[in-house]
Amino acid sequence: MYTGTLIKDLMATVERAEQSAQRKRRGEEMELRRMFELQIPRMQTEREPVFAGAA
User: Fold this and answer.
1) What is the 3-state secondary structure (H, E, C) of 1-55?
2) Which tens digits make up the pLDDT trace of 6-47?
3) How far apart are CA 35 and CA 8, in angstroms?
4) How much is the pLDDT for 37?
5) Is the pTM of this model over 0.70?
6) What gap in Å lies between CA 32 and CA 24, rounded to an integer?
């Protein structure tokens, strides 16, 4: 039986899904930043030339 809350329930479900996606994106961004920060000291001390795509 229709109780009149269908639209409200659907909107709440969409909002929860959006919040979950935002949390996931923030977590992935933080992980990428952490990995990049770990590479910076190595890159600064590296004095050898880097040839991208050279075989």
Assistant:
1) CCCCCHHHHHHHHHHHHHHHHHHHHHHHHHHHHHHHHHHHHHHHHCCCCCCCCCC
2) 889 999 999 999 999 999 999 999 998 888 887 765 555 556
3) 41
4) 82
5) no
6) 12
